[in-house]
Amino acid sequence: MLWLCTRVFERVEAFYVAQVPGIECIEGPMRETARRCGVPHVHTYVDTFNLRAGLYRPTALTWLPKQDMTEWYDAARDELACPWIANGWRADDSMDRRIVIKADGVLNKRMRVAMPIAHWKTSEVYDLMRHVNAAT
After folding, report:
1. Which residue, 42, 43, 39, 40, is CA-closest to 6?
2. N- to C-terminal Cα distance for the chain?
3. Which of 3, 46, 106, 111 is the most buried (most CB within 10 A)?
4. 51 touches 65 (CB < 8 A)
C-alpha cells in the first residue's frame, strides 16, 4: 500500500496503530519498508481500544481513554497535515471490513479514507509485493 501511494501522491506519510509500541520485530520491518519506499519516518499511535476493553488481559483497563479508528485517523491527519488517509483494507480480510467497504465504498468522503486495494484478490497483493521487492 505504501509503495502504491508513493507512486501516486507527491507527499506520503506512514503511520500505524500499535498494541504495544516499541517492539522491534514489528517496528524494524516497518521502518525498512518505509525507507525502501522513500518515506522517511513511520509515526506510531497507541491502540487503547483493545486494552480498555480487556481484550488482552483478564480485566479491562477502563481508566484508559476511549479511542477508535476515527480518532487515530483524525490525530494522524492533524499531526501529519494530510487531509486524506489511504489504508490497505480488503473486503476479503474480515466481515467487518466487508461491511464498511460495502456501505461506504472504496472512497469514504465522510471519513476522508481511500481503500484502493479493497477488491483485490490475495494473489494480486502478493504479486505486487513480489514486484516491489524485486524493484527495490
Report:
1. 39
2. 15
3. 3
4. no
Contact assessment for residue 44 and residue 16, using Cβ atoms and an 8 Å cutoff: yes
Nearest to residue 88, comparing CAs of 103, 75, 101? 101
Give 101-120 pLDDT, tens digit per residue.
999 999 999 899 999 999 99
Asked if 12 contacts 39 with a C-beta cutoff of 8 angstroms, the reply is: yes
Q: Which residue do the cell numbers 507527491 mark?
A: 10
Q: Using an 8 Å Cβ cutoff, are 30 and 117 in contact? A: no
Dist. CA 105–CA 41, nearest whole Å: 29
Model confidence pLDDT, tens digit, residues 38-57: 999 899 888 877 777 877 77
